[in-house]
Specification:
This protein is mainly α and 501 residues long. The protein has 22 helices and two strands. The protein has helices spanning 24-40, 42-51, 56-76, 86-104, 106-110, 117-128, 144-172, 193-219, 224-235, 253-266, 270-277, 283-286, 288-312, 316-331, 346-358, 371-389, 406-431, 437-448, 456-459, 470-484, 488-491, 496-499; strands at 398-399, 402-403. Strands 1-2 form a two-stranded antiparallel ribbon. A hairpin with a 2-residue loop joins strand 1 and strand 2 (402-403). The two termini are 47 Å apart.
Amino acid sequence: MAATDTTPVSVTPRQVRPRLIDLGPILQVVGLLLSTLGCAMMVPAIVDLALGSGDWIVFVSSSLVTLFIGVSMWATSRGADPRLSVRQAFILTTISWVALALFGSFPLYWSEIDLSFTDAFFESMSGLTTTGSTVIVGLDLAPPGLLLWRGILQWLGGLGIIVMAIAVLPMLQVGGMQLFKVEAFDTSEKILPRATQISGNLTLLYVVFTALCIIAYDLAGMQFLDAVVHGMTTIATGGYSTHDASIGYYESVPIEIISVIFMIAGSLPFILYLKMIAGNPRALALDMQVRVFLVTLVILVLMAAGSNVMLNDATPAEALRHSLFNMTSTMTGTGYSSTDHNAWGQFSIGIFFVAMFVGGCAGSTSCGIKIFRLQVVFENVRQHLKRILYPNGIFPKLYNGKTLSDSVVAAVMTFLFLYFVSVIVLAALLSMTGLDPLTAFSGAATAISNVGPGAGPIIGPAGTFASLSDTAKWLLAFGMLLGRLELLTVLVMFMPSFWRR
């Protein structure tokens, strides 16, 4: 009998190969978005042509290039499966913003103001993410079409942010956004009529708010083009202006009041406006996030005004006026300025720095950490403290009267940890480019918070980002994208496991 071979056989574990991703639906959507952007470029082209500016040819050329690429992407991906997996949704969200920022930079790069490609991309990314940081000096003399294009970029970005916050991020369960799932958007597998209706209503509401803001600015004394640009950038809480001095150029109390009203309007959840129109007039008043946002804003305004009165001998009325405008602009992430509030003293700088992180409400055009996440943290801390005092008690975590799940709390805690780590890492990288600590840290904070101006004489409310190195500008542009897409949407794609089966 033959001897049996008992030598153990070495078995190599089967390697997990990356699973190919169907790019068809991604290319289709990106192509459609680029086609929309290309059509939008014709608006400033018409304005430049009507006003006799030679830059109209720049917008026509940019429009044709963008339309060609967009239509080609859409045509070649026709017939693709419209259903999106979660992984495809992550990729689509990030690629869309990068592609739009890239093509949106073409008119800026080719315009007569002679920006480098780095500066043009920085300006475009700042616009689409509604950050509002700028590298352009001499806005008062810039071509009208260029000023309008900057406003259009922020306006389109603001609308995209609302749709993303209501339809995409809750589905991806990013940073606790699953709290705000709307039934119509609760699936990524098919497009429901209800979802289409909500998207259309949101767009119509956004257009109406913008029109009202433009009319109000026009009646308050702005020239019509200025009113159009500021109307778009106010409701988008973006902050791009047609003047180097921003809103402070007008030195007008009515204009500042109009700006404050619409900045706040843009920072409240747009889905609640639809609920009010649908027959629930108290939807905003009963929402806990809205109440906390408004109370926090009032407290910070009073603190900044009081500091200005005590340290700078400002009159109470003047201090309250500038504090209300600039604090609203900072907390909502708009980035307008009526005066250089860095001159109000260290205490005021600290208050504005805190406001930069706080941000507005989820489902709005505003930025920052968002009020609801701070509420979730407070509820979690409150529950732990009560459990220490009453070990046998039952204390549920609540948000707007509903129980908070552990998954939401964990998502919020993860987001906050990554948020501050991202600011610290970006600040360290910026300091390696030669920036001083204040400029580096405030630059990182304002980029990831999508606020606009930082602190200090270089990038503060009275400065620009023009003098920064190209490396610093690319780092800041990445920080803007990271903050606008709620961190995890971008960071998850740097994980090898994301690309595996």
